[in-house]
Amino acid sequence: SHEKICRYIASESNAVVVSVGYRLAPEHKYPAAYEDCLHATIHFMNNIEHYGVDPANVIVCGDSAGGNLAAAVSQTLAGRSDLPKLRAQILIYPGLQALDFNLPSYQQNRGVPLLFRERAAFYLLQYLNGDASNLEEVLEGSHVPPDMRLKFRKWVCPD
């Protein structure tokens, strides 16, 4: 689905672009997609000289669920001393938090196509366990225990 944009980025930036085709939910639940992206990135970085890429210029990028995966891969690789350091991550409308679907951004954009608030929560549940039967509870925020909500309030709150 992203071949055209990847080709465009590669030609306009004179860069090597590697697009990872990862397993999709609900058939393949978490952590399948993450593991696919992580293993592909590690393989690329372990064989970087084969591709003629400067190890100091590796960037991971993703949009939507791919943005979530790019962020997760970046965090995982940040502590690895056996691989080159990533230069950057580019996250395009990434799905990064699922603690609170009632934050202002979700409320303000709840009816904006293509990813309505309810659909975002539905896809998150599909990604995690393939079961969206508790969608309403997630939208209400009752899927997060009160102690966890307090712990993360500094970073995830309407203020």
UniProtKB/TrEMBL annotation:
<dbReference type="Pfam" id="PF07859">
    <property type="entry name" value="Abhydrolase_3"/>
</dbReference>
<dbReference type="GO" id="GO:0016787">
    <property type="term" value="F:hydrolase activity"/>
</dbReference>
<dbReference type="InterPro" id="IPR013094">
    <property type="entry name" value="AB_hydrolase_3"/>
</dbReference>
<keyword id="KW-0378">Hydrolase</keyword>
<dbReference type="InterPro" id="IPR029058">
    <property type="entry name" value="AB_hydrolase_fold"/>
</dbReference>
<protein>
    <submittedName>
        <fullName>ADCL4 protein</fullName>
    </submittedName>
</protein>
<feature type="domain" description="Alpha/beta hydrolase fold-3">
    <location>
        <begin position="1"/>
        <end position="132"/>
    </location>
</feature>
<dbReference type="InterPro" id="IPR050300">
    <property type="entry name" value="GDXG_lipolytic_enzyme"/>
</dbReference>
